[in-house]
Amino acid sequence: MVYLTRKAEFSASHLYHNPDFTAEENRRVFGKCNNPNGHGHNYTLEVTVKGEVDPRSGFVVDLKQLKEIMHREVLDAMDHRFLNKEVPEFLHQIPTTENIAIAIWQRLNAKLTAAKLHCVRVYETPDLFVDFYGEK
Amino acid sequence: MKAHLSRRYLFSASHRLHSEAMTKEENQTTYGKCNNPFGHGHNYTVEVTVSGQVDAKTGMVCNLTDLDTFIEKEILARYDHENLNMLPEFAQEVPTTENLCIRIYEIVQRGFRFAHLERVRLEETMMNSFEYAG
């Protein structure tokens, strides 16, 4: 088994707000992230897939295909977007780094056939990141 | 859904690697420049990984403010701008980055109640890092 990781970057804005919380609760739980006008990050995405090395190609996965899927499923949808307003998953779910990692996993897992998805890592900043391994 | 959240923090500290169980020559052979009797320092990066179910109400494994507050109070306030050899936990133990990594893991494991501790990764320099997962 070999693991292969492909990185990508996207920039997006978001805010954290739960409509079931009071205004005071939202401010207490989410702090600065609750600013109603939103704020943004440069996200770094690391997608790790795993598989046996194909004896004919020497690849775990065709990197070109993986890159295309990442672009189509993730970057086209999230890069330079306001996540809360433009990405369907976040119309009713808070776009925390945790939920972004889960949404990206679900988008990619449905489309990846050549290799098995192992981990989606999303860096919100260089000092804060989330790993999702598809665990329930 | 279970996710893993990692956060990186910086602190600077000095230490000297010297074991009372070794002769002077053994210490010099084992620790080299790190055995300098006057000590030396590093900018450490500590990466703490916690895990748990993503809370449906907040979208979070745990509130980052709780993690930051805990690490600030229990780890950074304890180790930042300190001479590690002067601290009680290193009175009998060499303050290698391995041992420091284990001490930090134990403090977080014992005291942090808002998520499950997965591992502590400690970078002594950009070239050296150590991980402890219990």
What does this structure look like?
The complex is a heterodimer of chains A (136) and B (134). Chain A has 136 residues and is an alpha+beta fold. Chain A has one domain (2-132): 6-pyruvoyl tetrahydropterin synthase/QueD (Tetrahydropterin Synthase, Chain A, 2-Layer Sandwich), CATH 3.30.479.10. Helix content of chain A is 30%, strand content 32%. Chain A starts with a strand and ends with a strand. Chain B has 134 residues and is α+β, with helices and mostly antiparallel strands. Chain B has one domain (2-132): 2-Layer Sandwich (Tetrahydropterin Synthase, Chain A). In chain B, 29% of the residues lie in helices and 31% in strands. Chain B has a five-stranded mixed sheet. In chain B, helix 2 (64-79) crosses helix 3 (97-111). The chains are: A alpha+beta (136), B alpha+beta (134).
